[in-house]
Amino acid sequence: MTRLLLCSSTFPLAADDRRTARFVYDLASALSAHLEVTALVPHHPGAALAEKLGPVEVRRFEYFLPSATERLADGTGILAQIKRHPLALFQAPFLLVAFRRAAQRLLNSSHFDAVNTHWIVPAGWAAGLAAKETGHRHLLTIHAADVFFLRRLPGGRRLASRVVASADAIFADSEFILEETSRLVGFDVEGVAATAGVDTSRFASAFTAAEAKARLGWPAAPTVLFVGKFVEKKGLRYLVEAMPAVRAAIPAARLVIAGDGPLAGAVRTQAEELALGEEAVTFVGAQGHDELKTMYNAADVLAVPSIVARDGETEGMPTVILEAFAAGCPVVGSRVAGIPEFVRDGETGYLAEPRSPADLASRLVEALGRGREPFAAACREAAAGRDFGKLAELYAAAAEG
User: Fold this and answer.
1) Is the pLDDT of residue 195 over 80?
2) What is the torsional sign of CA 387, 74, 61, 143?
3) Which CATH number do you get for residue 35?
4) What is the pairing mode between strands 301-304 and 223-227?
5) How would DSSP label each residue in 120-172?
6) pLDDT, tens digit, for every residue of 363-377?
7) Same-domain check for residues 155 and 222
8) Rounded to 5 degrees, what are φ and ψ at 109?
9) Distance set, CA 36 to CA 24, 57, 84, 112, 180 (Å)
10) Would you state the pLDDT for residue 100?
């Protein structure tokens, strides 16, 4: 069986990790049906250096001593950690060097046929270039965050050009991210827009929306759901600002916010200032996939009010859209980044102008007025096209050359 070394800076710290985004692990797990997969990822205090998570062998490398002070791979994202902790910025060069050495050791000592790296940095630079030096096929997966980060980083365009040009196959979150990568590196990047994926069986409807609301203890009221980190690019402040207008049109409407992040205090304060009490806006914190499945089934619409942040960062293709689709839940999303590639007006939801609470409110009211059922079939069909099982077939074919 073909052996794949999958390298990423974002990976669950344990089987029960709720904090870290799981999409890279979910892809690795699906790939295990076709390939023998080993994941090489940074260590974090408390995580095992070697373990098996489901079908995936995991190897974690230490990059700073003492290892108890490692800060970069806690599941919230390297850039977020660097913004919060000065020590994290100091540790970044050590992580790059340690990642490169760990990849070289594994590629030289074990029989791997191909390497799949997620994000241009650190994994693309560290393990992707090591793959070329050792004669292994390199499958580069590009996500949104590092494209916009490298655009701002001195020397980032040159670094990105080198990594992208060295890849044997390229996958990206969306057509939008492929276009943005081409702008970044200065040449046309050919790839497959098939990175964002979903386990459709995990989020498929198991009961009606009314039954799901009852299971969660939610009132039988029209419900808008938000799922994501509380960071600027998610545009959560505009959704909260839209809720008074939504409730003016549909007085029983409520917003449930699942997630956490650095802007949590600001968002809660905003809700209080708008006199949006618990019956209007409910904060439930970060949730695991089992809880989110029920929430997607209970919600009448998922709101994805993403924006282009002040530092130029935005979404590639938010995975929460596909998760909601798999549950038959429509989405009202911003007309920004890769979101319009999936949210089709009147079919799988509606598009709203970014940073416009008024337009967002109007579209939410329209979606709530129609209910879930008119959108459900088209949503499930869209999710099926991005099932991890289908994506794994594309990756496996690229790994085997």
Assistant:
1) no
2) positive
3) 3.40.50.2000
4) parallel
5) IIIIIIIIIHHHHHTT-EEEEEE-HHHHHHHHHSTTHHHHHHHHHHH-SEEEE
6) 999 999 999 999 999
7) no
8) -105, -15
9) 15, 9, 37, 9, 32
10) 97
